[in-house]
Design goal:
The protein contains 3 helices and 5 strands. It starts with 15 loop residues before the first strand and ends in an 11-residue tail after the last helix. The chain has a single domain, classed as Thiol Ester Dehydrase, Chain A (Roll), CATH 3.10.129.10. It has about 150 residues and is of the alpha+beta class. Strands 1-3-4-5-2 form a 5-stranded antiparallel β-sheet. The model has no long low-confidence stretch (mean pLDDT about 90).
Length: about 150
């Protein structure tokens, strides 16, 4: 592994929590949250994570960058049902030369149980949709302490 591929340590206090209530249409015939919806909820939490740091996915795209998901992993540990209130805990846990990893923990506040854990890997791409080295201004945004930035609504 080259020094450019060595991961950057990210402080643990940089977690964002996004609250989601399971809607009826997000459940399956058994009344449980449909498994694929967790990926939508992860995406919603990533948007909240960015806003907590003073930027949006849209502003990143307007600057000529995109962050496609190149890998996703979920482990279901419990259940979420219609009208349960969930907290999606998201942290940026690793930054490499052109890639980053977000980790997620889904807590069902109704039951108090962690019902799903997962992660997604993203690659920063430019206008030609090829992986690029994360530029210093983007890296600075990713490493921000949310306590030092006003949340974008």
């Amino acid at each position: 592994m080259s020094k450019h591929d060595a991961p950057t340590e990210i402080p643990a206090h940089r977690t964002t929590i996004e609250r989601i209530r399971v809607r009826y249409g997000e459940t399956d015939m058994m009344g449980h949250a449909y498994y694929a919806n967790y990926l939508f909820w992860f995406e919603q939490a990533r948007g909240a994570w960015c806003r907590d740091r003073g930027f949006t996915y849209k502003s990143l795209e307007e600057a000529g960058y995109k962050l496609p998901v190149v890998e996703a992993h979920l482990r279901y540990k419990g259940e979420a049902k219609y009208d349960d209130l969930l907290e999606i805990h998201i942290s940026l846990t690793e930054i490499k030369r052109a890639a980053m990893r977000f980790d997620y923990s889904v807590v069902n506040t109704t039951s108090g149980a962690t019902v799903t854990e997962g992660y997604t890997w993203h690659v920063l791409v430019g206008s030609e949709f090829k992986a690029i080295t994360i530029p210093a201004p983007v890296r600075e945004m990713l490493e921000r302490d949310p306590a030092e930035f006003e949340t974008v609504e």
